[in-house]
Amino acid sequence: MALLKANKDLISAGRQEFSVLLNQQVFNDPLISEEDMVTVVEDWMNFYINYYRQQVTGEPQERDRALQELRQELNTLANPFLAKYRDFLKSHEPLSHPPPSS
């Protein structure tokens, strides 16, 4: 079953807005853990899903399918963002230096 045009447009809009949100993030002190950032991103995704839940159209099955596709799209955007954050955290880990030899 194909998605309704209106729902495709909503998914596209949600994807674009979520992308803007992720691109606006600036990583700085205080740093939060990777696990906490995953929680933040999941909360953002749930916010978007709940927002668009009120706007999707069609029968319940169509609405559920549109929301599932939106979640997949948001996950697709979130994964590289979280990888970028993981790399950022690694770059801020203290370097371990071997003890000076005597």
Nearest-integer average pLDDT = 90
Poorly predicted tracts of residues? none
Secondary structural class: mainly alpha
Which band does the percent of strand residues land in? Answer: under 5%
Helical content class: 55-70%
Coarse morphology: elongated
Number of strands: 0
Summarize the structure.
This protein is an all-alpha fold and 102 residues long. Helices cover 70% and strands 0% of the residues.
Q: Care to describe what's here?
A:
By secondary structure, the protein is mostly helical. About 70% of the residues lie in helices and about 0% in strands. The radius of gyration is 19 Å and the shape is elongated.
Could you name the key traits of this structure?
single chain; 102 residues; mainly alpha; 3 helices; elongated
Q: What is the fold's blueprint, element by element?
A:
Layout: H1 5-23, H2 34-53, H3 60-91
